[in-house]
Structures are given as structure tokens and as C-alpha cells.
Design brief:
Elements lengths: L1 H17 L23 H12 L1 E2 L19 E3 L6 E5 L10 E2 L13 E3 L12 H5 L7 E3 L22 E3 L8 E2 L12 E3 L5 E4 L13 E3 L5 E5 L1 H8 L8 E3 L4 E5 L12 E3 L4 E4 L13 E3 L4 E4 L13 E3 L4 E2 L1 E3 L12 E5 L6 E3 L13 E5 L19 E5 L9 H5 L6 E3 L19 E4 L6 E2 L7 E5 L4 E5 L4 H4 L5 E3 L4 E4 L13 E3 L4 E4 L13 E3 L4 E4 L13 E3 L4 E5 H5 L9 E3 L4 E4 L5 H4 L5 E3 L4 E5 L12 E3 L4 E4 L25 E6 L2 E6 L7 E3 L4 E5 L12 E3 L4 E3 L11
Parallel strand pairs: 3-5, 5-6, 6-7, 7-9, 8-10, 9-11, 10-12, 11-13, 12-14, 13-15, 14-16, 15-17, 16-18, 17-19, 18-20, 19-22, 21-23, 22-24, 24-25, 25-26, 26-27, 27-29, 28-30, 29-31, 30-32, 31-33, 32-34, 33-35, 34-36, 35-37, 36-38, 37-39, 38-40, 39-41, 40-42, 41-43, 42-44, 43-47, 44-48, 47-49, ...
Antiparallel strand pairs: 1-4, 2-3, 45-46
Bound molecules: 2-acetamido-2-deoxy-beta-D-glucopyranose (12 copies).
Amino acid sequence: MASMKTTFLLALIFLLLQTEFISLEVIWSNSSAGNSTVGCIDMEREALLKFKEGLDDPSRTLSSRVGEDCCNWLGVGCSNRTGNIIKLDLNGQLLCDQMSASNINWLSGLTSLKYLNLNGVNLSEATTDWLQTVNLLPSLLELHLSNCELHYLPQSFPSVNFTSLSVLDLSLNVFNPSSIPQWVFNFTSLTKLGLRQCNLKGSIPKIAKGNICNLRNLDLSENYNLSGEITEFFQALSECSNSSLEELYLGINQLIGNIPHSLGNLKRLRVLQLYGNTFSGSIPSSIQNLSCLEILSLEDNKMNGTIPESIGQLSELRELRLSGNYWQGIMTETHFLNLTKLSYFSLSSSSSNLLVFNVTHDWIPPFSLKYVKILDCQLNSTFPAWLRTQKELTKIHLVNTAISDTISNCLWNLSSQLVKLDLSHNKLMGNLPKSLNFSFLLRVFLDFNHLEGSLPLWPHVTELSLRNNSLSGTIPIRIGQEMLFLKALDLSGNFLIGSIPSSINEITYLRSLLLSNNYLSGNIDYHWERMPGLVYIDLSKNNLSGGIPSSMCSLHQLMWLQLSNNNFSGNLSLCLKFISSKSLMTLDLGENILSGPIPEWIGERLSSIKILSLRGNMLFGKIPKQLCNITCIHVLDLAQNNFSGSIPSCFGSLVGDKYFDGIIFEEITAHMDFVVKGRQYEFYNQISIVNLMDFSKNSLSGEIPTELTNLTFLNSLNLSWNHLTGIIPENIGALR
Ligand SMILES: *[C@@H]1O[C@H](CO)[C@@H](O)[C@H](O)[C@H]1NC(C)=O
Ligand SMILES: *[C@@H]1O[C@H](CO)[C@@H](O)[C@H](O)[C@H]1NC(C)=O
Ligand SMILES: *[C@@H]1O[C@H](CO)[C@@H](O)[C@H](O)[C@H]1NC(C)=O
Ligand SMILES: *[C@@H]1O[C@H](CO)[C@@H](O)[C@H](O)[C@H]1NC(C)=O
Ligand SMILES: *[C@@H]1O[C@H](CO)[C@@H](O)[C@H](O)[C@H]1NC(C)=O
Ligand SMILES: *[C@@H]1O[C@H](CO)[C@@H](O)[C@H](O)[C@H]1NC(C)=O
Ligand SMILES: *[C@@H]1O[C@H](CO)[C@@H](O)[C@H](O)[C@H]1NC(C)=O
Ligand SMILES: *[C@@H]1O[C@H](CO)[C@@H](O)[C@H](O)[C@H]1NC(C)=O
Ligand SMILES: *[C@@H]1O[C@H](CO)[C@@H](O)[C@H](O)[C@H]1NC(C)=O
Ligand SMILES: *[C@@H]1O[C@H](CO)[C@@H](O)[C@H](O)[C@H]1NC(C)=O
Ligand SMILES: *[C@@H]1O[C@H](CO)[C@@H](O)[C@H](O)[C@H]1NC(C)=O
Ligand SMILES: *[C@@H]1O[C@H](CO)[C@@H](O)[C@H](O)[C@H]1NC(C)=O
């Protein structure tokens, strides 16, 4: 316990040293800093006691407060001349639990307070007029109220009392949606303003000339709805004869506009973080003046133009993040000339093939990267030789970069330190190394290449995608023993033969298994129950046969099951009954030789299903009206069976599900074929836009129910090749 307190105290002192506050006269309880010569002022002690009474302090942190001299209490600092409390630091993150205070009116008793830190203290019940209370503290220099569950951010304010404020941190409070109030920019001595994740909307207010010239750190990031031009903001900054700005965080908002030439005036800027907005235009050449710049993050905007070579002069640059824009032109060695400290580099262009990365074969870069991400731009068709010089890489993404070469050995030599390798969508050739000593938790994506040979066994790999290559041979029998840590395996679209080894049962963490579009045969009678985490199974387009095993019934997390285009046989009611999963979103059993009727319980059992395809089997009997319970259906394909009887009129009450996005989890690209208006289409990811109902090529009879005209959400309704009679509902043309 005692050592915990010491740690706490040390943390406080550390915090103190980190602030500018060291110049002030502070005495810390039980620290060697000294002693209060004057002692605690009675009124102020009363105020603190009042605070303590109103405090819900489960960890009893403040119970250590003993003695008359409140200057010696934990978290309290006094002036050594007057004895006034000038510092109150209850940074909740330093305390183990969340504390909450029901009231902060006691603060008004501490009129000399210069430093107030209540970070992490739950003030949600502490009134809406927290600002009025704070306004009674005219000496305040630093106000830290981050993560305090404040909800009310006053927009206007008669007159600010604490005019010398230097630090204002209100980050991580989910305010009721509000604009950035004008008053936060009214402090001429403001050096740090923190409004990250505050749920702010609207635009950055007009800033009076000179009001932000002392600002060193401005954080408005992750407000999502902050919008409008930033030009005026940069204008206000450029009016400073000597701007102090060192760190600017505006990421993840909806800000627009060009980055003006005056950016170059911010000579002390170290961090420029603008990612995830809608900034346009090009990078101003004045950027070369930012000689202190360490982090430049422009990812995911709408910027275009060529990237100025002068960027290569920024010798302090550690992170250069340029991906997700519309760059064009050629990047050469000059762009990296002096970037000796670069460790993170990302580049991509959404303007197809307009960006070329052209360096000489024998280029030795001045940097040593840990992370490289180059997407959607042209590298030389040979494997980039300069990568050989990069010995510290842990994450490599070279995706859709037109490399047509074998994978360089230099890359495999890094295998023990890599945590992610993504070389998908190139034209890589050759065989993969049979065995490699990859590091733990490695994620490997080599999809959409021309790789050949047999499947390697790489222990410690957690995700492996080799989709759409030319791998051949069988899946190694020992895959389960050797690749025990796999969570995701995608071998779809290769030339694999033989049966799926039963050792896959050993891969108990497996979440997704995608083996579609190969030549796999045999049955799938495995112990599926040993892989209870399976969410996604796609074995479609193979030559698999036998029944759908009952052990699949225990896959309670299963969301996606595709077994279409195989030779699975047996009775549908038997195999389906086991899948009790409420989470099942897609069941595709089309183009097999399943027989028997559709069980009546299917509607209730699978009520959350979005895609149900039983197309092209030998099913018969009536279409049960219980299927109407699946109201949020997107695709109901019963075509090419032998169903008889009439179409239940309740189908008119199906409504679809506009929130269905077809995404299971990020790593998985859902893939499915659909027959729309008689033609087969292949869909990747945009599966959610497909809405169709197909009952064609059965033996259905009776009248077409007029209710079907209600199904306006459908893209396609096919009832052809049946024995249906009566009038085709006249509104049927209203379908999209
Ligand atoms: C009070 O603080 C000042 C300035 O930090 C220091 O010079 C002085 O020695 C301190 N007085 C005592 C009694 O600790
Ligand atoms: C501070 O010191 C006093 C005696 O000098 C001691 O009784 C008290 O427990 C100490 N407080 C802390 C938090 O260490
Ligand atoms: C603080 O001053 C009081 C009274 O002058 C004295 O008893 C105490 O030992 C001093 N504490 C420290 C840590 O110097
Ligand atoms: C903060 O306090 C309020 C009111 O006491 C409570 O409802 C809320 O859950 C607390 N927040 C957290 C994160 O504990
Ligand atoms: C400014 O602070 C003083 C001292 O606490 C207080 O008396 C006065 O009412 C405050 N003014 C406003 C507008 O809150
Ligand atoms: C902020 O400054 C503007 C103009 O400089 C002034 O009109 C306004 O009253 C000030 N607001 C506060 C709360 O002081
Ligand atoms: C950049 O985009 C703007 C429109 O946002 C366009 O007017 C301009 O011509 C583009 N510049 C280049 C170099 O493509
Ligand atoms: C950039 O590198 C070149 C060649 O290595 C060197 O002459 C120049 O001084 C460097 N410039 C800066 C700003 O570091
Ligand atoms: C790449 O650079 C070489 C020589 O530096 C040049 O000959 C070639 O044309 C350039 N390629 C492209 C696509 O710009
Ligand atoms: C690609 O690299 C080769 C060999 O290093 C070189 O001869 C060729 O000029 C490069 N092509 C381009 C377009 O840069
Ligand atoms: C299924 O639909 C029927 C008739 O519309 C209804 O009575 C029943 O409650 C529904 N069951 C479920 C589970 O939604
Ligand atoms: C569907 O259409 C029929 C007539 O065509 C209509 O009576 C009924 O209210 C509509 N709505 C639903 C949900 O069935």
C-alpha cells in the first residue's frame, strides 16, 4: 500500500515536472520539495473538506488526507509565500478507479488556484454551469478537465475572468452536439487547447487577430462532424509575426479547403495531422520551410497534384503518411533525399496508375523503415531492390503496385520480425518457401497473384490469404498440427485437389475457412464442434460430397455458410435442423443434389437470415408460409427445384433490411455468385445491394398473389417457368 502511494506521488511529481508549472512555488506532501512556511488557509481547507464530502471515492484515495495543514495533502500544492492553494491535481487516470464528484461549487473557495487537474473525475452530476464556477478562479493558468463526462459546453459567456489561461483541455467529453465556442479562442496566452473527441460540429470560429499566436498545441481531432474551410484558421495563424504552433491535430473531421502557402510560416511545426478529412488541392511547396516537421499525416483526403520534391528536405521527418489521396506524377529518390529519420511511410493514389514510384535499381535509401505501405501506384515491375536495405521492417504493404517478379529472398529473411505482410494484387510468380520461421501473430496476404507450387506450412501465422493464385497439389495433411494458430485461412481460387485434411480440426482458433473454387473432393465429416469460433465457412465450387454433417450444429457463432456448387446430398431438414444459430446471416446450399421438402420450422429458426439460396437442388413440396417470418431477407432463391403448390401471399410483407452491409469482419471479403434476371454475376463485398427473389423453374401453381407488388425493395423477381395463372400484378413494373 505504501509503495502504491509512493508511485502515485512520483507520478504526480513527474506530471508536475512535465508542465510548465515548475516555476511556481509548490510544496508537495511528504516530498523533499520543502515545507509550507505559512500553512493552509482555513477557508480553503473548508472548501476541500466540502469537496471531500461530496466525493464518491470508492478507492478511498483521499482518505489519506490527514492533519490540519491541507498544503500537505495529496494532490494539493500551496504558495510558499501566502499559503494559498494554487494547485489541485486529482488526475483520475493516476488513481486506480474512476472517482466522481457531485458538485464543484467548493472550487469557488480556492480563489488563488492556478492549476486545476480533474482529468478522469466523473463530473456528470456536477451541474451544467461548471464554467461559471471555473470563472470564479481569476488566477487560473491551467484547466485540465479531460474525460470528465461533461455534457454541457456553454456557447456564450459574458466575460472571461481567468484571462491568463494557458492550457485548456476538455478532450474526451461527449458534449451535447455543439459548435466550438468563440470564447475558447479568447485567451491571448493560450498555449494548448485540447478538444479531441468532444462531439463538436460546425466550423472553426473566427479567430481574432493575434489570439492564437502563443498556441503551441491544438487538438481538434476525432470530432467527426467538424466541418467548413480551414483557410481562415491558417490565415489567423499567418498573421502572427512568429507563430508558436508546434502540434496541429485535425484528423477525422469533415474539414475542407486547400492547405495554403502560408503553411510555410509555421516554422516550429513538428506535427501536422490532417488525416481523414476532405482537404483538396496539392501540398504547397512552402512545406520545405517546416524544418522541424516530424509527422506529416495527410491520409484519406481528396488531395491531388504531384508531391513536391522539397518534401525530401524535411530531415526531421519520422512519419510520412500520404495514402488515400489522388496523387499523380513521379516519386523519385529526391523525394527522400534527407529523410534519414523516416520510419513510417505510406503512399497510395486513387487516380488509377497516375502515380509512379521510380527509383534506380541501386538506390540506397537514407532511412530505415519499420512500416511501409504503398498501394495502387506503379512500382518498377521488378521487386523493389531498395527493400533489401531495410532491416527493421515489421509491416509491409505493397498492394496493387504492378510488381511482376518472384518474391525477393530479402523479404523472407525478415520473416522472424514481420507482423504483417501484404503483397496482394500484384503479378508475383514462383513458389513459396516451404517453411519459414515467421514471428508470432504474423498476418500474410498474397491474394491475387500468380504464385505456384504447393501450399507452404508456416507455423505462427495467424492469417493466411492466398486467394486467386495458381497453387496446386493437396492441402498438406499436417496443416492442423503445423499451423495451429490460424484464425483465418483463405485458399480460394487455386487448383488444390484431394480432400480437406481432417487435421484442420486441430486449428481450434479458426474463425474463417475459405476454400472455394478449387478441385477439392471427399466428404466434410469433421469434428466441426472442435472449432467453435468459426464464423465464416465457404467451401463452394468444389467437388465435395456426402451429407452436411450434424457436427456443424454446434457452430453457434456461424454467420456465413456457403456450400454451393458441390455434390452434397441428403435431406435438407435433417442437416438444417442443427443450425440453431440466430446469428446465421447467409446460407447458400445452391447447386447440390439435396432432396426433400423445406422444413416448416426454417422461418422461425433462421429468422435473422439475409441470404437463403437453395437453388438448383432436388427439393420438393410446398413453399412453407413460415418463410415469411424472415422479413429482413435480401435474397431468397428457390429456383430450379421441384416445389409445388401456390406462392403464399404473405411474401408481400417481406421488407428487407436497409442496415445489412454484408460485412462479417474486416479481414474477410465476402464473395458470392447471384443469378439476376437470368444472368450470373459475381459479387465481392457489395453483396448488400443485391435484393432478389427467384422461384423460377419449379412446379408452382395458382394465382400470383397481388401482395408481391409490395416488394419494391427487390432488384429482381423471377417467377417464370412455373404453372402460375391469373394476371401478372399490374404494379410489378414498380420493382426497382
Ligand atoms: C519559495 O519559493 C521560492 C521560489 O521557488 C524559493 O526561492 C524559496 O526558497 C521558497 N521558500 C521557502 C521557504 O521554501
Ligand atoms: C506523510 O507524512 C506523515 C508524517 O510525516 C505520515 O504520517 C503520512 O502517512 C504521510 N503521508 C503519505 C501519503 O505518505
Ligand atoms: C514541515 O514543517 C513542520 C512545522 O514547521 C515540521 O514539523 C515538519 O517536520 C516539516 N516537514 C517537512 C517535510 O519538512
Ligand atoms: C458517471 O457518473 C454518472 C452519474 O453518477 C453515471 O451514470 C455514469 O455511469 C458514470 N460514468 C462512468 C464512466 O462511470
Ligand atoms: C471573477 O472572479 C471573482 C473572484 O472570484 C468573482 O468575484 C467575480 O464574480 C468573477 N466574475 C465573473 C464574471 O464570474
Ligand atoms: C471574445 O472576444 C471577442 C472579440 O475579441 C469579444 O467580442 C467577446 O466578448 C469575447 N468573449 C468573451 C467571453 O470574453
Ligand atoms: C485537383 O482537383 C481540383 C478539383 O478538386 C482540380 O480543379 C484540379 O485541376 C486538380 N489538380 C490536378 C493537378 O489534377
Ligand atoms: C540534404 O542532404 C544533402 C546531401 O546528403 C546535404 O548536402 C544537405 O546539406 C542536406 N540538407 C539538409 C537540410 O539536411
Ligand atoms: C524512371 O527513371 C528512369 C531513369 O531515371 C527513366 O529512364 C525512366 O523513364 C523512368 N520511368 C518512368 C515511368 O518515369
Ligand atoms: C526498372 O528496373 C530496371 C532494372 O533495374 C531498369 O533497367 C528499368 O529502367 C526500370 N524501369 C523503370 C520504368 O523505371
Ligand atoms: C412468424 O409469423 C407468424 C405469422 O405471421 C407469427 O404469428 C409468428 O409470431 C412469427 N414468429 C416469429 C418468431 O417471428
Ligand atoms: C400489400 O399489398 C396489398 C394489396 O396489393 C395491400 O392490401 C397491403 O396492405 C400491402 N401491404 C402489406 C404489408 O402487405
